[in-house]
Design brief:
Length: 98
Amino acid sequence: MTAYDIIRKPVVTEASMAATADRKYTFVVDKRANKVEIAKAVEKIFDVKVEKVTTMNYDGKKKRMGMARPGKRADWKKAIVKLTAEDHRALRTDGVRR
């Protein structure tokens, strides 16, 4: 897997945007990726140093597909990446520093 396969997209919510003040950035990542792979991918894509990675696995919601056919959304994984104090500048989600 390449770094761009591991980091799927940023999570843009009110809580995740508030966490950027603490140097924490939130991403949806590949379900098979571990913390070391996530840290290396963020360091490669954004050219920063990662201090800590926290991951959470989410089960997909159950949804109805029509009248009686049950369905389910895909399971997914979220990673909160904390940057080192030297990389205190905010990141833009397109991979460029501000």
